[in-house]
């Protein structure tokens, strides 16, 4: 199914990201979109009302949460059928990310209408780029199970993943989750982020054991936990064997530099390690 949003005359559902704390992060385009649509479907009307009041947005609000998503979807489809555009928002960040909205989107598309995105703040992406952990490959998992036994099973399945792992967690459960991670994943590097973009924004970076010590007295606010992926297991290689490999490559006619590179490639080691080892002997 091909959709050219701005080249057809179909009604559109706008998935609109909202601030995760700092209202200054709400874009001009997002504000204009919420003003121009005929209906805003939101997770909590009371929370969204604070946002719309601040930006003088008078659009009608309806609730759309996990307990009424089906009936809310019907109202949204009706509005779209009448030629009106609709926006879907969550309390903070993007709708559908650990929030309701999947049923709405699939139903709107099945009904032949447009679905478009108004980009904006994202808690897990903000936490990731500030974590000092690899950002090139990652898996967003969301919330782990509230029960320790089930949570450990989930972590077991994730334990072999080499990419960075991203979780949401509640403040009253974060300590237990970290303790389970220490048991299942080992003492990996993590970054605990909380209250992002707000007055009490905080990052706690370090190994899991260190972060556990740091939060013994508890933490408050919404939490994003970034966890380092599993490291490749590098087999132990005796120093003399590495040095001899460099000498052998040089005996074959390679330069000192090329011999070090060849030995590093042979043993899957970093060149600076081979260089330092060779020149220290």
Query: What is the radius of gyration computed over CA atoms, rounded to a whole number of angstroms?
Result: 26 Å
Unreliable stretches covering 5 or more consecutive residues: none
String of helices and strands: EHEHEHEHEHEHEHEEHEHHH
Molecular shape:
elongated
Helix content: 25-40%
Classify the oligomer.
single chain
Structural class: alpha/beta
Can you identify the CATH class of the largest domain? Answer: Alpha Beta
Largest sheet, order of strands side by side? 3-2-4-1-5
Largest sheet: 5 strands, parallel
How much of the sequence is in beta strands? 15-25%
End-to-end Cα distance: 65 Å
Q: Which CATH architecture of the largest domain would you pick?
A: 3-Layer(aba) Sandwich
Mean pLDDT: 95
The count of strands amounts to 10
Contiguous helical run count? 11
Count structural domains.
3
Per CATH, the superfamily of the largest domain is Tetrapyrrole methylase, N-terminal domain
CATH topology of the largest domain: Cobalt-precorrin-4 Transmethylase, domain 1
